[in-house]
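Hey,
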Amino acid sequence: SVSLSHINVYACLVCGKYFQGRGKLSHAYTHSVLDSHHVFLNLLTQKFYCLPDNYQIIDSSLDDIIYVLNPTFSNEHIASLDSSSKLSRAYDGTTYLPGIVGLNNIKENDYCNVILQALSHVTPLRNFFLQEDNYKKIKRPPGDQMFLTVQRFGELLRKLWNPRNFKAHVSPHEMLQAVVLCSKKKFQITEQGDALEFMSWFLNALHLAMNGTKKLNSTIVNKTFRGKMRVTAFYDLIGHIM
């Protein structure tokens, strides 16, 4: 991001930089004039604009960009994911199998990447987060930031399993920003951390952000990962535990 804001964000479709606003005093407007990059996408409304002329672009050829920004999955599509071996072709011509794609190593975040990749293949968890309707109506207290982990994890999984990606790798940048913020910088992208410790924190953060309790089925995290223990005692002929 050039203007370092997550409000009213426009993405330049030429270089991929992010800017706040598109008015004459905005960074996006200046960028369009100085660099001759003219097509911008509002990430919230998913509408395209031409700058500096400032008019909306309506063209069906841009629909693929909208899908990459926010992939959607039907129940039928999700049910076929584990049995499908159909390769997809990225915009640059490379082929990939949805779900089997790389995560960019921005700096020292590989310990996070390996956990995120592993969790993306836990079928019940993956299926839940591939459909935003499963969690978008969860109510959280005003100003709560922990729900960012839920939102960003869902977005990341949908990108990893997207059959129409432009590239055969995905950036976890937004997900990692949420991790740094919600962990209060306990887990960083600029220095190595412990993968097991991160997994424990991350699953607990997801569970609590979805209003999870100690009840077994209170969230998809609890339902998927919480196990049960059966204790069996053996006694000898005189009633002593063996």
